[in-house]
Amino acid sequence: MNQPVSIPAGPAAAGRIGRERLARLQRGAEAVAIPMLALVISAGLFSIFLLILGKSPVQFYSLIWLGGFGTPFSWSNTLLRAAPLMLMALAVAIPARLGLTMIGGEGALVLGGFAAAAIAVPLIGTTNPVLMHALMLIAAMGIGAIWIGIAGGLRHHRGVNETISTLLLSYIAIAIMNFFVEGALRDPADPNKPSTRAIGSEAMIGKMPGIDVHWGLAVAVLACILLHVLMQRTTYGFACRIAGGNARAALAQGLPVGKLIVSASMIAGLCAGLAGYFEVAAVHGKANASLAAGYGFTGILVAFLARHNPLAIIPVAILFGGIAAAGGIIQRRMGLPDASVLLLQGMTFLVLLASETLYGRFRLFNPAARTERT
Q1: Which of 40, 117, 139, 154 is deepest in the core (most CB within 10 A)?
Q2: Closest CA to 325 of 293, 348, 361, 365
Q3: Alpha helices of 97-215 — where are they, by DSSP H?
Q4: Number of CB atoms found within 10 A of residue 151's CB
Q5: What predicted TM-score, i.e. pTM, was given to this entire model?
Q6: Residue 178 has pLDDT above 90, yes or no
Q7: Is 14 part of a structural domain of the chain?
């Protein structure tokens, strides 16, 4: 009886495998090099702006380092801002795998935080804090998922552009919060700033051991890891990538593109609502205009700079958290307005969008094109 004979891979097969690995490394290097180049160019452009104002770029970037990363207090301040940025960047990155550009995460954060505070108001002092926080979490994530899910449903069923719909929904969400915070749910004990009733310091989420940052940071990092696994290691993530690459081909293969769009939108809303929950339960203790702090719009920049990679979102969010944390010291030491860091972020976003045209143009990162020319 003949036994099957295993034929070892020859030099040609080994060479092909080696070329494929090299190509993957080169593409990965391109995904890092071009965003880094965009950061350098934007920093250079902002330096020219500072010189025109008669300010020192060296001092400016030194203060960013000092205010964001130079001391333990700076790190705490940076990580406090990085936690919501991670979740808001995920709210952009997950739909982007399907080719969707959703920029209205700010509204889902605000409405999620407001829903958490509204649920907590009648429960303060009468309900176990664990149960209260569970209900707050469900309310925040649920309303966030529904809010962004509406945009996904409009895109699937009516062909409404998700960029426009999420942006408009964001303003509607902020208006809804203001309507109730300045009206029926306003705390009469706080006449200076319209807010809901505070949940109380004893009921708020505490800090992680050994670090002056709340548990929202750990949850945000865990969310980045879990969503990376979901999008890279599961059939759902594979289906999303196929649908994002070519929706018609995905439909021809029997993939439920509509359900994928709506589900990815709801996952984005869950992340935004989760960020709103932590802003209320761990930072502010109540819902007010402070919820609209711009995390949703900065999260767009973080997601694009990270190339919509959930794992890359973590360091990029920390970087921009540090830039935001340094706004105060820049204002005090250099006499620049606190919005200077927003201008830097805006320049970075514009340069980053322009750098999208560079992908595939460098022969160093595009071995296939080099092979075709030879």
Answers
A1: 117
A2: 293
A3: 105-120, 129-158, 162-181
A4: 31
A5: 0.89
A6: yes
A7: no
